[in-house]
């Protein structure tokens, strides 16, 4: 439930379209809905500007379906991460507008009338193997109302590729840089850009890469100013944070929920 829902309930009550008991019934589960296995935060959209996001990993298809139904009953947008085909089929069974983004492993439902992307978030990946994490960031930021530009496979092994896109880097409001292996790319981009850079280490690499720990430490030790780091493979966290920064840069709320 978001601000528009609450206002409509109060307007309906004032105009006499609903009585006190009906208005109370619609408001009583405002804080959360208890599904026993999950307590769905109905207040999230009002506080944060976007509904609760479903992390599908570790949940059954039935649980995902029930949580999604609860969210969609009160809003017009849904984002579910780390989803597989079975999770998608479960959500599709309750809403025919569900879309599966296989590279990002994300399910979305978007019934909002205003889908125009605001601002400009550039998402840069070092290698093709980093694309799933980069796509998770891209789909997340798009769902949160941002305009997203993708610049993929421009790692430091061929730095001339990155420099070709200098104009797009310079025009971005926020940049997400996704890299595995040595994890150097965010420092390079941080040295070129005047906007915040969000670095995402990935678990792509060989033995001493330690499943993403090596690029994580590289990024945390960046000598470029304005570089922040999220957890390994956390494209969602990077996309969400970038969208919030982008929204501030555009003067506030995208009004999308």
Brief characterization of the structure:
The chain has 257 residues and is of the alpha/beta class. Helix content is 40%, strand content 18%. Helix 1 packs antiparallel against helix 2 (20-27), helix 4 packs across helix 5 and helix 6 packs parallel to helix 11.
Protein model, in words:
The chain is an alpha/beta fold. The strands form 3 sheets. Strands 8-7-9-10-11 form a 5-stranded parallel beta sheet, sandwiched between helices. Strands 3-4-6-5 form a 4-stranded mixed beta sheet, with helices on both faces. Strands 1-2 form a two-stranded antiparallel ribbon. α1 runs antiparallel to α2, α4 crosses α5 and α6 packs parallel to α11. The radius of gyration is 20 Å and the shape is elongated. It starts with a helix and ends in an 8-residue tail after the last helix. The relative contact order is 0.12. The mean pLDDT is 90.
Q: Give a short account of the largest sheet.
A: 5 strands, parallel
| Beta-strand segment tally | 11
Secondary-structure content class: alpha/beta
Low-confidence runs of at least 5 consecutive residues: none
| Amino- and carboxy-terminal Cα gap | 9 Å
Question: Mind telling me the C-alpha Rg?
Answer: 20 Å
% residues in beta strands: 15-25%
Percent of residues in helices comes to 40-55%
Query: Globular, elongated, flat, extended or rod-shaped: what is the shape?
Result: elongated
- Order of strands, main sheet, comes to 8-7-9-10-11
Question: Please, how many helices?
Answer: 11
Order of helices and strands: HHEEHEHEHEEEHEHHEHEHEH
> Kindly state the mean pLDDT as a whole number?
90
């Amino acid at each position: 439930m978001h601000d528009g829902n609450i206002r409509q309930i109060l307007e309906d009550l004032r105009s006499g379209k609903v009585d006190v008991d009906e208005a109370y019934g619609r408001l009583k589960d405002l804080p959360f809905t208890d599904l026993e296995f999950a307590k769905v935060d109905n207040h999230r959209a009002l506080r944060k500007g976007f509904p609760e996001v479903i992390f599908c990993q570790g949940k059954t298809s039935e649980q995902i379906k029930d949580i999604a139904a609860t969210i969609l009953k009160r809003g017009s947008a849904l984002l579910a991460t780390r989803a597989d085909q079975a999770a998608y089929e479960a959500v599709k069974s309750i809403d025919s507008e569900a879309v599966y983004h296989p590279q990002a492993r994300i399910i979305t439902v978007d019934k909002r009338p205003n889908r125009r992307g605001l601002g400009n978030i550039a998402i840069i990946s070092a290698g093709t193997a980093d694309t799933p994490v980069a796509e998770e960031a891209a789909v997340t930021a798009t769902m949160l109302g941002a305009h997203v530009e993708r610049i993929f496979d421009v790692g430091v092994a061929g730095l001339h590729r990155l420099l070709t896109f200098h104009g797009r880097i310079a025009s971005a409001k926020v940049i997400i840089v996704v890299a595995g292996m040595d994890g150097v790319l965010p420092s390079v981009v941080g040295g070129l850009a005047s906007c915040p850079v969000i670095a995402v280490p990935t678990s792509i690499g060989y033995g001493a890469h330690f499943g993403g720990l090596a690029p994580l430490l590289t990024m945390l030790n960046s000598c470029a100013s304005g570089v922040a780091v999220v957890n390994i493979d956390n494209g969602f966290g990077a996309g969400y944070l970038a969208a919030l920064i982008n929204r501030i840069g555009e003067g506030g709320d995208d009004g999308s929920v």
